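Newbie here. four chains, one complex. Structure please?
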Amino acid sequence: MIRIAVLGVGRIGRMHAENIAAHPRATLAGVYDVIDAAAADVSARLSVPAFGSVEEVLASPEVDAILIATSTPTHADLIEKAVAAGKPMLCEKPIDLSLARVDACARRIAGTAVPIMLGFVRRFDPSHRAVRDAVRAGRIGDLHQVVITSRDPGLAPEGYLKVSGGIFRDMTIHDFDMARFVLGEEVVAVQATGSRLVDPAMMERLGDYDTVSITLTTASGKQAVITNSRQSVYGYDQRVEALGTLGMAQSENIRAHHMVLSTQAQTGEGAPLQNFFIDRYREAFAAEIGAFVDAVETGTAPEVGFEDGRQALVLAEAALRSAQVGRTVQVSEAARQSEPA
Amino acid sequence: MIRIAVLGVGRIGRMHAENIAAHPRATLAGVYDVIDAAAADVSARLSVPAFGSVEEVLASPEVDAILIATSTPTHADLIEKAVAAGKPMLCEKPIDLSLARVDACARRIAGTAVPIMLGFVRRFDPSHRAVRDAVRAGRIGDLHQVVITSRDPGLAPEGYLKVSGGIFRDMTIHDFDMARFVLGEEVVAVQATGSRLVDPAMMERLGDYDTVSITLTTASGKQAVITNSRQSVYGYDQRVEALGTLGMAQSENIRAHHMVLSTQAQTGEGAPLQNFFIDRYREAFAAEIGAFVDAVETGTAPEVGFEDGRQALVLAEAALRSAQVGRTVQVSEAARQSEPA
Amino acid sequence: MIRIAVLGVGRIGRMHAENIAAHPRATLAGVYDVIDAAAADVSARLSVPAFGSVEEVLASPEVDAILIATSTPTHADLIEKAVAAGKPMLCEKPIDLSLARVDACARRIAGTAVPIMLGFVRRFDPSHRAVRDAVRAGRIGDLHQVVITSRDPGLAPEGYLKVSGGIFRDMTIHDFDMARFVLGEEVVAVQATGSRLVDPAMMERLGDYDTVSITLTTASGKQAVITNSRQSVYGYDQRVEALGTLGMAQSENIRAHHMVLSTQAQTGEGAPLQNFFIDRYREAFAAEIGAFVDAVETGTAPEVGFEDGRQALVLAEAALRSAQVGRTVQVSEAARQSEPA
Amino acid sequence: MIRIAVLGVGRIGRMHAENIAAHPRATLAGVYDVIDAAAADVSARLSVPAFGSVEEVLASPEVDAILIATSTPTHADLIEKAVAAGKPMLCEKPIDLSLARVDACARRIAGTAVPIMLGFVRRFDPSHRAVRDAVRAGRIGDLHQVVITSRDPGLAPEGYLKVSGGIFRDMTIHDFDMARFVLGEEVVAVQATGSRLVDPAMMERLGDYDTVSITLTTASGKQAVITNSRQSVYGYDQRVEALGTLGMAQSENIRAHHMVLSTQAQTGEGAPLQNFFIDRYREAFAAEIGAFVDAVETGTAPEVGFEDGRQALVLAEAALRSAQVGRTVQVSEAARQSEPA
């Protein structure tokens, strides 16, 4: 049994804590939160210890591994500390909003053998993964185009968006990772277009976009097209499509149930899409914990790690610049951005 | 927290034990099985006590309620004992294969206030329930026809079938309950046709059918049509359809994931159907435990009870007689069958 | 070019006339209708002669074949006359509402080599036919069950229903033929249940049913289940399903177009079903003409002939009796009904 | 009856000729082809005159309108001649591969009242049009994103591609028009990425791409994303999607029939997609003729005209430049390209 402590028990941390508790080869070693009451509440509900500090968690011989679900600005620090303490970790994305900070973190943990897994949960969705597997197994032949549709049910509050790092770093980052997951080779060029359509006034204030389209190209010419919107009122729209020389694989949306209603007014109306990311990716979140437990048990590198987190951020930087300056941005150029003088 | 003990920890009992353990308002109070090793194994895996006898379970002040997942011939006895002990119970279907035994049981427990829930799990499937809810909410107007397709992935072993009570009592019984669930009124007449097509030689030996079609009619003329097969090689086929004056509601099959593959040879191939009943009705089994916990907590009658179990068996008897004699059988006639002289 | 004259240019006759005119290997030789104005109108619109009498049509050397789309009571007479005149014919179903009249007709035309095709148009629907073809090609292995859903968008006027011969002879007759088409072997037993739900008062007056369920069984035990309703407000519901040892083939409903609308209120609403039989079976009606032209050109027996029309009526008789007396009716028994004493 | 002559009776011209002949308010006035034998063949098959020259067609009082289905380099000349002759015309796309030639043509026919319709047939597809209509009717609220998937079943021969003007002018041009049709406002900026993946060697020789992704943006920030491939082995993939503030409308692929096959190996395999453009857009081609007949009868401007043909070419030029130089190209800039110095 792998004993995992959860740092940060907001909405996502709580869900992870429950998934850890339910996993047959893991136990919840305890929780920590900067807000004592939050930790106490989860501690009581799940009958596990509440730790008093990060240091206490990292020092505890009762903790085999940690899950980092704290606020974004703390991630890089916690990764460095967990590496120092030799505790394998599953860290929620992103590593940091600043590529320079990510690169500094990379230098500090260079060469570590401590397993670091990044929380790109969509890789563990059975349908998206089946697309990737179909590609890897050659069922669609040589891959040519990937098309990712990713739209949030509704705009987050301005307070959240203000510190989110912008749509590319906050939302598209999942799709950049999905594109890399399906493409199986690195992206070299990025074209992006950003618009302010859902809430133009708020986007103006934030200097952000709410509707974006991005084309990624690999060295061999494979293309990945991503369309994002901060608002899809019909539900959380999450689709992945891959075209190859032998066919196409598509991961379709998930519905709350499979009842279909046909009346004079509406013929063949499906059930609503799963609307909330925790519902939509319920199986994926559970499978993610399973993959982390596997990595910790075997001491092997998790299938999605620090460098994946860094690459997704590099693509976000490149996309942002492309949208701002109106030209194709080379990834090498975006990656250079953070290099020390 | 409702403390529930599980009697019988074969395949289904184990699954129930895990669902109880995972339920936020229930705990697994322990397990019992006539085979000590089976109880010991589950006891060890789930860290709960193994009881030495049914009597011990029923006498324990640490047990608030029981789940009966033992072999069919023990169900009626256990129901009577649990009623005597005042322990609410969730009993797997059927109550018994003999309507006379069911009626004897009914007389012995007559007037009890102890909650008895019957394990007609399909009522808790989100899609089937959405059909029933659409009917009750008037979304399809006045109900006219119900069509239930229910086909098992493959024939069970002869040893199992020999003691199953035959296809109507073993397999169609779920569909009889589903028909009553959706119809919302009692069936008065039954027409059935049985064939031996999947394994004619085995069916001949057993005096049973493997392919049946049944039409049920209520007093107001509503019809429910059930088609069953012991073998659908494309997966576990479970569909429910309701036609009314304002429309139609359909509960469709569930797939393992939502990836669709299109190639030159096969265009738009969906993922396989969920094939195993524990996978197919995973959400339903969990929801069933939830409904039982609700009933025990509130002391109210479970939404599916002893009389539902009895009525489904009455319909099975009627269908068997109809298939054998080639005429419509009145339910009143089938029900009389078990009355004492 | 096969020159075909159309007898009867009501709604269906007109459509046939247009399909003949559009067929590359057929021409419309002219039209006849008992109502002169109707014939004159179609004659003018399609620039073809209007014949003055049936006799004139049958005597004309400019007419190679005829299409009979007159009222039902005239069909058997016209078949006999066309046989006498040596003109191949495509006759709309049914041959007659009376099995005795059909049998008399059969005796009179016994041994004729003149091609007689019956207008069971649904056999020519590409999707239904693909089900039949999948069955014949062994793609689903040995056939076990056929399930036919057939529901009319709305109740026809009482005047029409009064002379229709009742739901089994008028509506289910298409499904009896479809069942025979897919089953590929003769039905030996019929069970039927009839209800009055759509318009109980009118059905009471007519002594008819508006909602019926029928189970057909072949000598080898294959089952075909038909559900009919005179009213499906969500559109013309026409589905055929076949289950076999290797799989299932399903013919699904046709929609007016393939646009799907998803909003907050309704997720994934498809376009309306094709609602009117002439729209729904447009391709089938055109293919039917093609099959008739082929038969006339080659002088071979049409793939659906007089005996198919007779068998469907025998099944209708059997179903009616079964619904009335509440027992399984043997087809041999129904067929005997019309035999001369 | 509008009497229409067809110029050019290759594959597309013949189909148009048949559609004209079948239209209730049009007749085929005759055909012309630079290859006498081709004209003679169609003339004989459809029993219409074969004209000896374009001049003869344009001078004929028996010809009310013309359909131009000759080779691309002749289109602009024929448009100018038909305008001079006062004959309304339906001209296959493109007007010309050179924007300068198109602009010269525009100047020569400036101010004409002769109806000129451009053959952007996809506008008449019932499903695509239903998307556009849903957008115009406000059913999805304010439009934000359009996503067009357009993939050809297989690569055309090199000889054809050599004179096609390249993928943007030959293939994407239909999607540029579809984007404008759905967007309902003009595109101001174009980003494109081109790859050589289907046949890199041939594409290298041609200086062309076979796999492209394009993002179009309007002045208000609406986005249209187009993905094209010269090869989709699973069939002709033609989908249009529109996202707005109130929902999403999607036009899905069309299948040859609606039979679905489920076996142990493949669950829920749909029928093949319509593979050939003449099959896929059969209804659209017929509706296009209808729209042209309407325009000629009423003397009103066709719903898709010369300027639509010109705008689509401007977008093709912009996309080509964007793909070549790796930056966003402003449409004003592309349009200027053809202006006289």
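Moderator note: The domain at 123-285+310-336 of chain B is CATH 3.30.360.10 (Dihydrodipicolinate Reductase; domain 2). The radius of gyration of chain B is 20 Å. Thread marked as resolved.
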